[in-house]
Amino acid sequence: MVTLGLSQFVAGPTHQLSQVYRHRTSSHDVSEPGDDESTTDFTKSEFLAFKASFSRPKFANTYRMEPYRTFEAHVIRKKAEDILKNALQDYKYDGSNAAARCLILSEEIIEAVKDQGFDRYKYIVQVFMVEKSGQSIHIASRWVWDDARDNWVSALHETENYVTVALIIAGYYE
Predict the structure, then answer these.
(1) Strand pairing partners for 129?
(2) How far apart are CA 79 and CA 85, in angstroms?
(3) Any idea of the CA torsion for 90, 80, 114, 170, to the nearest 10 degrees?
(4) Residue 101, phi then psi, degrees to nearest 5
(5) Where are the beta strands (DSSP E) in the chain?
(6) Quick one: which of 105, 115, 98, 99 has its CA closest to 82?
(7) I need a labelling partner for 145 at 20 to 30 A (CA). Which of 10, 39, 95, 157 fits?
């Protein structure tokens, strides 16, 4: 393979220069400043066509302000306590994998809550696992709350070495 220096290349025939220039610009597809057609208008029209293909179907308003089946806190508390008890009965606390365990527990709890079939609710599940070492813990949260429809539940699992608290928040979604 023969490599040419810059001085040899520039001094060479013009068709070699144009081939190299064409090769370099073909990889980037950059338009020349003197083009009449704007690439911005082309992408904007493509975007609008793409967006129109994913438009949501419009449904008639139901004007329903209450769910058909309201959130039942006592049922969810029992389910969450059972999940915590079954999943953590042989678990030895280890700080390095406690976060992963909390994530798994929260996914299990939210699936169990969704399976209950309460309609028009959105759920938030938080699981906290704390090692017992003579300290205290205070868990607080703030929400914009509708007392008539929104609800929350806490479930507790305690052993000699650690405490696990699960908070399930059910927010009514109109």
Answers:
(1) 164
(2) 10
(3) -140
(4) -65, -40
(5) 121-131, 151-158, 162-172
(6) 105
(7) 157
Question: Can you tell me the distance from the alpha carbon of 118 to that of 79, in angstroms, rounded to the nearest whole number?
Answer: 14
Q: How many helices (H) and strands (E) does the chain have?
A: 5, 3
Does 9 score more than 90 pLDDT? Answer: no
Round to whole Å and give the CA distance between 73 and 106: 17
Q: Is the pTM of this model over 0.85?
A: no
Query: Is the pLDDT confidence value at 3 over 70?
Result: no
| DSSP conformation letters of 87-124 | HHTTPPP-TTTHHHHHHHHHHHHHHHHHHT--TTEEEE
Q: Which of 35-39, 40-44, 96-100 has the lowest mean pLDDT?
A: 35-39
Nearest-angstrom CA–CA distance, 34 and 21: 18
Crossing angle of helices 98-115 and 73-88, rounded to 10°: 140
Strand 121-131 versus strand 162-172 pairing type = antiparallel
Following DSSP, what letter does each residue of 46-100 receive, concatenated? HHHHHHHHTPPPP-------S-SS---HHHHHHHHHHHHHHHHTTPPP-TTTHHH
**Cα 87 from chain centre:** 25
Query: What are 71's two structure tokens?
Result: 């959130």
